[in-house]
Amino acid sequence: MTMYLGTLASIALMQLLGAASPGPNFFIVTSYSLAGSLRRGLLAVAGILAGSLCWALLAAAGLGVLVTAMPSLYAALRIAGAAYLIWVGVKMLFGTSRSRSGASKLETIDTDWQVVRAGFLTNMANPKSIAYYSSIFVAVFPADPPTWLFWAAVSTAVTVSAVWWISVAALFSLVPVRRAYERFKAKINTILGIALICLGLRMAIFR
Question: Against a cut of 0.90, is the pTM above it?
Answer without folding.
Answer: no
